[in-house]
Amino acid sequence: MLANNNLKICHILAWRDFKSHKAKNLLLSFAVILITGLYAFTFLLGSSVENAYLLNYEYRYGSTSHILYHGLTLHQADKIAQHPNVKSTVRINALGQLSDEMMGVRSVKLAVTDRDYARSILSVPTTGRLPEKAGEIALDEFTMDSLGILHELGAPVSIQWTDSRGGRHSTDFTLCGWWASPTNFTEACAWVTAECAAGLLSGYPDTASVTMGVNLHQPKELEQQAQQIMTDQGVNQVTYTTNLAYNEARMEMAGKQATPFYIPALVVLLCGFLMIYSIIHVAMDQDTRFFAGLKTLGMTPRQIRWFLLEKAALLSLFGLLPGWLMGFGIHYLVTPRIVTGMEQNPAIYFLAWETFALAALCAFGTVLLAYFLPVIRTGGMMPTQMLRNLEERVPKGRGRSSTGKVSFFRLAFRSLWRNKGRTILSLLSLLLSLLLLCSTWIRYTSYDEDLYLNGMSPWDYTIEDGSAASTVQRYNPNNRAITQQIVGDLRGRSEVLEVSVLKSKEVELTASDELRQRIVDFYNEPYDETMTRRESQAAYPDWCAGLDCLEQTGSYYGIVIALEDAYLRYVLDNCPVTSGDFDAEQFADGRYVVAAGAYVEGVSSPAAGETVELGGRAACRAGFRYGGYLIFKRKQQFGVQLSSDLFCAAVLI
Hints:
The protein is of the alpha+beta class. Helix content is 48%, strand content 18%. The longest helix has 40 residues. The chain starts with 7 loop residues before the first helix and ends with a strand.
């Protein structure tokens, strides 16, 4: 028996079909371009969101190294670097830690410049350069803002630091470069030269204080690998940390966070299939006659399947590059609005070829599915049976006019009535597309933008002091980042409607006997059956020491805030007076202070009608329920002098 295995003819027929039915294939090509673009955008967006979560974990860890070993000797560092699982290493030998009280919870090493290590902890200056001369230093912007250092090359820098032996030092430097690292808390460094380090610390380098970053060939189960490397190399009594971005639980969490951005791929699959399926069905009768003729000539079902496979492959190939470009273009414009806080466009930063390959495979699968489903039923039929089915679907003798002529409307209606199944399928496709479009509009674009923006912030721009831009920082009152000149320049601009200024200062206050007794009595009351309110705060020794000081001397610290215009209106609108009456005239003249009691009204601050003394001058007050602040109007009122720097400025345009 002879078998027909000629597949070359299938390739020729596929090309001839594209040339013979240009209109249909052009329409199909546009559909494939759209499907490929949507697949590419969906996978690129989901991948960017997932990688952004992992990058955020890496930023929190503070290093791109998989493992960081601390407190190594040079001999131990060399042994770990020789382990077969270790791909590469970077290392530094730090002089000590920055110990200025304004650093807050951050830990920043003072270390000799090492460009490779700086790259691994994202600490290469983007402005200026790394130190090259003795007396130069490079810092991250977060540290500069906390210490009140000007963002100017050549600015003076005074650093307080503690060496590895516990000695405290204060050294002056000149700023030669800086970089942005707002979330880099673990491995932040301040860079100096080796010549400078030798002059600052006798006996440097300390061979027993090496920090080494390790990259592995296969970074999986980092905790176990880190311990195994130490065991294999005979290294003991060494601390280490592992990169959060490679933690299995965090990787799983990042995947869950990105899942909603991958789910639209299912919608693309459904709509893409319906779109191509509907276009193919328009010419299905013609294709059925074509396949019947091919079968008459001896074409096998295998050859027909191969022919359809090649048609789907050619169609996908034609739409591949334009679809990729369209998907990346949408991704480039949309993703920066979803993945925020990056200097570089996340569409470029997280770009990977795997997402384009996945989009191409999904588009090809969608086209192939739409091509193969219509021929499943007819694939096993004989040519005569295929033609007979076509004749049975043609209505005979219905709706003909006496003249034999028919209008366009009636012709269109007959076409729809003749193919009821296809008509219903097309209507369902259109209804589904309309539903998806409407739901997307309702979810993402039907918000009242003005109400949304007003809820986010009552002003257009907020300029904050760099030392208080994050909750983990400690406000530095000596910072001069925002000056009166800057505020004056803002007020002088034609597009600016209003500039409102808020200033703050921590001051020592003395509670009256009534207030002191009220606070002490409140915290001596039972919290539950086993302890008092004071005892419930035993886990916070600093707070307990402050309460003891208040009880014994009446002395405590408060935050004095000077505000005006938009800030004042915002406080009055959102924090209504709960006791006493607000008097705008007395407030403006400095005879009136607004205070607030934390948790319970009148407990942590004077009650309405009582007086408070600031700078040796007394003033009446009214009570607010919220916050914990004393508020007054003018910078020099009551003898309390606020520095010329600003804590925050609000700009309305």
